[in-house]
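Figure S7 source data.
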Amino acid sequence: MAVVPQMQHSIESSISNIDVYEGDTETIIKHGENISVCAKFHIEIYGCQMNVYDAQRIAELLQFCGFEKAKCHEDADILIFYTCNIREKAAARLFSNINIFKNQKTKVVAVGGCVVQAEKENMFRHKAINIVFGPQVYHKLPEYIMDVINGKRDRIMDVGMPQMEKFKAIPVKQNVSYSEFVTIQEGCNNFCTYCIVPYTRGPECSRPAIDILHETKHLVENGAQEITLLGQNVNSYHGEAAYLGIGGKKTWDITRLLYEVAKILGIRRLRYVTSHPKDFNKELMTAHREIDVLVPFVHIPLQSGSNKILRLMNRGHTVEEYLDKLAMFRDIAPNIQFSSDFIVGFPQETDEDLQATIDAARMADYSFSYAFKYSPRKKTPASRMQDQIPEEEKEVRLAKLYAVLQESQLKYNQSIVGTIQETLFEKEGRRENQYVGKNVYLQSIVVEADESPIGKFMNVKITKATQNSVFGEIIQ
Ligand code: SAH
Ligand code: SF4
Ligand code: F3S
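C-alpha cells for the predicted FE3-S4 cluster complex:
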C-alpha cells in the first residue's frame, strides 16, 4: 500500500530527514542540509504535457519541503522557468522572459527543462540565472535553492541524466485535479533527424508498471476522473511487470498496461500521448474496442506525406504503411478518430512533396492536426542537410497545408451537430456564464450555464459548429 507522507505546512522545515515514499518503494532523500525556509516560488512552464507534469511535481516537492506557492510572479522570491526546446529561439525567449519577470524581490532564478539540456554552455550568459537543472534532476531543486539562499553557492549547474531517480524521490501528489497526467515513459531512441528530444530527455526509459498503477490509483482515489498516460514515445512502453500472470512476461507493453490501469475503480477516461506510428499493433488497436474507458481517439503524427521526406526524417515507415495502419485501426475500432502533427519546409522538400502531404492529410481524414514550420535544431542531422528551405517559403507552405487541415477540422466539427457528446468541463469561456469542456475526441465544446459545470461530466446536445469550437446545450 502506498504510504503518503503528511504535507508540511510549516515554513520551518528540514528536508534532511524526510522520508519520501512512492508505491511500495522507500527512498530516503538525504541532502544532509538543514533547511529553514521562508520563501515563495513561482513556476513558468513552456512546452509539452510532460513539462506540465514535471512542473506540477516540482511545485508539490517544494511545498512538501516548506516553500510556499506565490500568488503571482511579482510576489515570488524564487522564479523557476521550466522550458521547451522543440523549436528555435527558445533560449533567447527565455532570457527576455527572465528580464520581464525578475524584480527586486527575486532572490533566486532557476531554469530547468529541455532548453538547459540542449544549451547548457550558454545558460550562465544571463547574469540573473543561479540554478540550471536538467529534466532528469528536478528532485534536487530544493537543495540547490537552499544553497543559493544560504549563500553557499551562487551558480549551480546539474544536467545529469539519472533517468527515473526523480520518480522515486518525489512524494505523491496532494493537489489532485479531475484530469491528471502520469508519465509512464521518457526519452526517445528514434532519432528523427529534425528532433532535439533524444538529446534533451535522453534514451528511452519506462517506469515500472507497479509505480504507474500506484500513482494512478492515488490520483483516482483523490478525485481524478480523466488520466492521460504520457511518454515521448508512449506506445513503445516496456516497463517492468507489476506481476507475472499467465505467460509470465517480465515486462508489460502499453496494451497490457492500459488493461490494468483501466481496472482502477473510478477512472472515466483514459488517454495516452504521444504515439509513434511504428509502435501500433493489432493488440493495441483492439484495446480501443475492448476497454470502455479508453478513448476512441489517438494522436499519430505523420509529419510528411512524401516517402522521400519521411526517409530523410528517419521516421521508419512509408506513407502507405501509415495509411494502412489507420485503415486497420478503423476496421478494428470503428468509432476511432485520429489527429496528427506535420512539419513543412523540411530540407529538400519540393512543391510535389508538399502536395503529397496535403493528399495524405486528406486521405487520413483527421479530426484535427497541428502543423509546424521546420526549425533547425543544433546537433541534429537535419540542421546540417543541404537545401534548407527559406523562411518565407516555409510560411507559404504552412498556410497552404493549414487551409486543408482547417477544412477537415470544420468538416469534422460539423459532423457532430445534432449528436449528444459527453463533455468534461475545464474552464470558463470568453463570455459570462460560458463554459468550455472536451469530449473524448478533444473537441472544444462551449455551453452556457447558470451553474459552473467545471470538473464535471455533462451530456451536451451539439447545436452549432465553427472552425475551432462546437456549441451546445447541457441536457443533463
Ligand atoms: N514523439 C512525438 C513528437 C514529439 S515533438 C512523435 O514522434 O510523434 C512534437 C511535434 O513537434 C512533432 O510531432 C513534430 O511535428 C514537431 N517538431 C519536432 N521537432 C521539430 C522541429 N525541429 N521543427 C519543427 N517541428 C518539430
Ligand atoms: Fe522526436 Fe518523436 Fe522522433 Fe522521438 S519519435 S525523435 S520524440 S519526433
Ligand atoms: Fe519541448 Fe522537451 Fe517536451 S523539447 S516538447 S518540453 S520533451
